[in-house]
Design a protein that fits this description.
The chain is α/β, with parallel strands linked by helices. Helices cover about 30% and strands about 20% of the residues. It folds into two domains: about 140 residues, Rossmann fold; about 210 residues, sialyltransferase cstii, chain A. It contains 14 helices and 16 strands. The strands form two sheets. It has a nine-stranded parallel β-sheet. A seven-stranded mixed β-sheet has the order 3-2-1-4-5-6-7, sandwiched between helices. The radius of gyration is 23 Å and the shape is globular. The N and C termini lie far apart (about 65 Å).
Length: about 375
């Protein structure tokens, strides 16, 4: 059954971005360009998923799709680049990559790769550096899909009520003086958080909901349809950009109820740096929290994917690294720039964040140490 579905381009949708690696000849994965490529991918993009055919790496494909089904497979796998060795591109693949604005990299002699724009890179590291922007972006929507999106977007828009500005957000939250901003790192579930009081709670996406710890936030920062569906209708949603909200609308057309929302771009808090990387939802959450100017701001779970306990509480499987679209140094620079404007008391349960901000001259109170039993 799985092979038949793959022939028609149907794959189970999964979270995160991926690459597709196709070995069409008998060459082993350890030979030729594959081993250096996989090593470079694992080093540069630890959270990037891999679909492969003929290699047994990542998520293997049992069969190749029909020529007309390539676009569907690439979209459902959230592919951001295709690597090909062992023969010419299968029928329909090159056309699908062109239509979706996806780079197609083809193996060349002596371990090199032929890349789009008729360029050649002699190593996998050079290839990924050259096309990092393409890998950090994604497939384009077809004109036909965009027409369908417009109809669904119109249906969904009636279910979303926009707050007009920062003053309206502050009013909706009851003018909070003690605000907690929780990412999803291990320090978001530090025991010291269980009994302390706050006026407003901010959270990111919805992985925290299943664990039930501090699971009633007033505001959630996201770009996921799953989060919009998972949180209560009274929860205020904040998306990063207007484009993110517009892209999400078609997938929310049939969700029940009404929802209030804003965007960080609307508030002037989304950076227009023009680079490859963008802030995480957690970083945008901090920017909004600072803009609200509470007397006390406590940050937890922003562990910069460097906490010794791993990426997330109780999760030993997920690589402790940023996803493709984000970068630790860019993230930290953005956080430091936002927090430099904060005039209240800044607290954290994350020793990683405290140390990283201290290197940039920012003072953060470690509330885990302050709440330790002095005996």
């Amino acid at each position: 059954m799985a092979h038949m579905l793959q022939r028609w381009g149907w794959l189970r949708r999964r979270k995160g971005r991926s690459v597709l690696c196709l070995q069409l000849g008998p060459e082993a994965a350890e030979a030729g360009p594959w081993a250096p490529l996989f090593q470079a991918l694992a080093h540069r993009f630890p959270r990037l998923r891999c679909y492969s055919y003929g290699l047994g790496q990542g998520t293997p494909l049992g069969t190749l799709p029909r020529p007309q089904a390539w676009s569907r497979l690439l979209l459902r796998a959230k592919v951001h680049g295709v690597f090909l060795a062992g023969g010419p591109a299968p029928s329909g693949l090159r056309e699908a990559c062109a239509a979706l604005s996806l780079p197609l990299f083809e193996a060349a002699p002596e371990g090199a790769w032929n890349a789009p724009e008729e360029t050649r890179e002699s190593s996998a590291d050079a290839l990924l550096a050259r096309f990092e922007r393409a890998l950090a972006q994604g497939p384009a929507r077809s004109a036909r899909a965009r027409r369908g999106d417009r109809l669904l977007r119109a249906l969904a828009r009636r279910r979303f009520e926009r707050l007009r500005d920062l003053a309206a957000l502050r009013e909706a939250l009851g003018h909070p003086e003690v605000l907690w901003a929780l990412g999803n790192g291990p320090s978001s579930e530090d025991p010291t958080l269980a009994s302390a009081a706050y006026d407003s709670l901010f959270r990111v996406n919805h992985s925290w909901k299943a664990r039930g710890f501090l699971s009633q936030p007033e505001v959630v920062f996201t770009g996921l349809r799953g989060t919009v569906a998972a949180v209560p209708g009274k929860t205020l949603l904040i998306f990063q950009r207007e484009a993110d909200f517009e892209a999400l609308l078609p997938r929310c057309a049939f969700l029940p109820g009404r929802r209030r929302f804003m965007t960080a771009e609307q508030l002037g808090l989304f950076p227009d740096a023009g680079g490859v990387f963008r802030p995480t939802n957690g970083a945008i959450m901090i920017a909004v929290a600072v803009a609200l100017a509470p007397k006390r701001l406590r940050i937890a779970g922003m562990d910069l994917f460097a906490h010794p306990a791993g990426a997330y509480p109780g999760d030993e499987a997920t690589p402790n690294a940023y996803t493709v679209a984000h970068d630790r140094q860019d993230e930290l620079s953005f956080l430091a720039a936002q927090l430099a404007h904060y005039e209240g008391t800044l607290e954290t349960t994350s020793p990683v964040l405290k140390s990283a901000l201290a290197e940039r001259g920012l003072t953060v109170h470690d509330v885990t140490q302050e709440n330790e039993d002095p005996r």
